[in-house]
Write a structure and sequence with these properties.
Blueprint: H1 15-24, E1 29-33, E2 39-43, H2 44-60, E3 68-72, H3 77-88, E4 92-95, H4 102-112, E5 114-119, H5 124-130, E6 139-142, H6 152-157, E7 173-178, E8 188-192, H7 193-203, E9 216-219, H8 231-238, E10 241-245, H9 250-260, E11 264-266, H10 269-282, E12 291-294, H11 301-309, E13 313-319, E14 326-330, H12 341-349, E15 353-354, E16 359-363, E17 380-385, E18 407-415, E19 421-426, E20 431-433, E21 436-438, H13 440-448, E22 453-463, E23 467-476, H14 484-492, E24 503-506, H15 520-526
Bound molecules: adenosine-5'-diphosphate.
Adenosine-5'-diphosphate binds at residues 179-180, 182, 226, 295-298, 316-321, 351, 409-411, 423, 426, 515, 517.
Length: 532
């Protein structure tokens, strides 16, 4: 005879988060520093009330469960309202990256079939330029001004908030984020209520994002990027105070950290670099943070050393839009307290260990059926699986995973015996020379240690004998002289001799993607006819 479970049946939907935050942490503040220097304050209870008004307003527009509602906006409290308002109406929030190129914006708005688009006034020029290409969008609303048609405040201001969230299955879609498309068209990742809830439970653990009711979080990572690293959900789960800045100027961020008592800053390495450079230039100490979270690209050792040295808990995470995004994170090992600074920095410079809920493995780059040992030496294609990892891209005809649900990340990594993942490259960027792999990332990291180098990218160039050989493309710092021989000598101290680039080319600029990463695709195109 089969036995039934005896527990309650709750659908894990994100509305539970805002209900909890409003009920148990209702007075905890959400602060926004706007681009014009003004500040506005609301609370978790205020966010919930506005989100319910937005649910009513969306229903009046005829938005039904599953319909896509897009935002083109920076970080602020009204954007947060729309996270809970859109998902609370059962619709899908599509956060658009305003830095994408016009063709990509046209592509994703059409592909997502967005019915409503809510934008910041600073992005009004994009809307004006492209709106005729977006026939699916029936209603444009401006978050922060009434100069561009209907304003958000006027729109939800006509409602009273006396309604209920739309109910449904925890497997219903709730958010849509497109990857920037380093290759081909952007691809849509459709998060579900359940995947976001499980990601939240994992995220708030001390071994993960390490958030609690005392945290005062400044997420500098944009709300349009990769589920905003889960902060709008995780902060509600613990009742953290959120501080938003609509601009990412280092001076503004530092002032805000001090005036709002920020304990926790989350940003990509370039944000940390800007904050450090700003403080150094003014001879000021770093704002007194307890937690530093970074990810999105590899965090340079020098920055980690400064932050660890200043007593911060540094969490270096790896993930991608397809993994909601948190998958691995460098947290403190059991013997942490006995380790010296050098060793601590080494641990934090790697991408960390899987968060509970995510599994990782590496497979042979040429033979995906061959799983590689966790020996800290053998690099291979990094694969992940878990309940908040993608199964299939939006509208794709086939799964993005193999039959055992492994998703190939496109990253190349080695896994150490203790489970620590160390990224060495992206699959498309590794350089194959004489049957062996050369890591473009390691060459680049070695090159940027040169005082005159601002940015460097290594790419493979076809070679008659070796298949491919690396060349290094370098942007010098303004006014700096870089002698190619001195650069080559520096590289020789850091990488194997046969990895040394066959040529070093100086350029004024290296192409970037819409998310600010080096676009190797465009760079390879630029050097298509290059001969060694
Ligand atoms: P996009 O592909 O749109 O740029 P993602 O945020 O999804 O945006 O990018 C994910 C990729 O970023 C990963 O596959 C990896 O290559 C890189 N990445 C993310 N975190 C790290 C990290 N901590 N160290 C090195 N690379 C990282």
């Amino acid at each position: 005879m089969s036995v039934l479970g005896g527990m309650q049946d709750w659908e894990l939907r994100v509305s539970l988060l805002i209900d909890h935050a409003a009920r148990e942490h209702g007075t905890r503040e959400i602060v926004t520093r706007w681009a014009d220097g003004s500040t506005s304050r609301t609370t978790w209870a205020g966010i919930r009330h506005d989100a319910l008004k937005m649910v009513q307003a969306l229903r009046k527009l005829g938005i039904r469960p599953g319909d896509r509602v897009a935002t083109l906006a920076m970080n602020h409290n009204r954007h947060l309202v729309s996270w809970y308002g859109v998902t609370g109406a059962g619709a899908v929030l599509h956060t658009i990256n305003p830095r994408l190129f016009d063709e990509q914006l046209d592509y994703i708005v059409g592909h997502a079939e967005d019915r409503v688009l809510i934008f910041d006034a600073v992005f009004a020029p994009i809307v004006e330029r492209l709106r005729s290409n977006w026939p699916c969008v029936e209603q444009f609303i401006c978050f922060d001004s009434s100069d561009h048609g209907l304003s958000f405040d006027a729109w939800i201001g006509a409602e009273n908030g006396e309604t209920e969230w739309t109910t449904g299955s925890e497997r219903d879609p709730c958010m849509l984020c497109y990857t920037s498309g380093t290759t081909g068209n952007p691809k849509g990742v459709m998060y579900e209520h359940r995947s976001n809830m499980l990601h939240t439970y994992a995220g708030i653990m001390p071994q993960c994002l390490d958030l609690d009711a005392r945290s005062v979080v400044l997420p500098v990572v944009p709300m349009f990027h990769a589920n905003n690293w889960g902060f709008p959900w995780a902060a509600a789960a613990v009742g953290a105070k959120l501080v938003y800045s609509a601009t990412n100027d280092a001076q503004v961020l530092c002032d805000l950290m001090r005036s709002e008592g920020v304990t926790y800053l989350a940003g990509v390495p370039t944000v940390w670099l800007a904050v450090l450079q700003h403080c150094d230039a003014r001879g000021e100490p770093l704002p007194p943070l307890t937690n530093a979270l970074t990810g999105g690209s590899a965090m340079p050792r020098a920055i980690i050393e400064r932050l660890v040295g200043a007593g911060m808990r540094v969490a270096h995470a790896w993930g991608m839009t397809e993994t909601s995004p948190v998958a691995t994170i460098a947290y403190e090992s059991a013997d942490w307290d006995e380790l010296d600074l050098e060793r601590r920095v080494t641990i934090k410079a790697m991408q960390g260990r899987p968060v509970f809920g995510v599994q990782v493995r590496t497979v042979d780059l040429d033979d995906p059926a061959k799983e590689l040992p966790r020996d800290g030496k053998t690099a291979g294609a990094l694969q992940v699986r878990g309940p908040w990892v993608i199964k299939r891209y939006f509208k794709a005809e086939a799964d993005a995973t193999d039959q055992d649900q492994w998703f190939d990340t496109g990253d190349v990594a080695l896994i150490h015996a203790d489970g620590t993942v160390q990224l060495t490259d992206r699959t498309k960027d590794v350089i194959k020379s004489g049957g062996e792999w050369i890591s473009s990332v390691e060459l680049e990291n070695a090159a940027i240690a040169h005082p005159g180098v601002a940015e460097a990218a290594a790419i493979g160039i076809a070679h008659p004998k070796w298949d491919e050989r690396p060349i290094l493309v370098v942007v010098k710092k303004p006014g700096a002289e870089v002698d190619p021989e001195s650069l080559r000598d520096l590289l020789a101290t850091r990488v194997a001799k046969w990895w040394l680039p066959d040529a070093i080319e100086f350029v004024d600029e290296i192409p970037h993607t819409g998310t600010g990463k080096i676009s190797k695709k465009d760079l390879r195109e630029q050097f298509r006819d290059y001969r060694l």
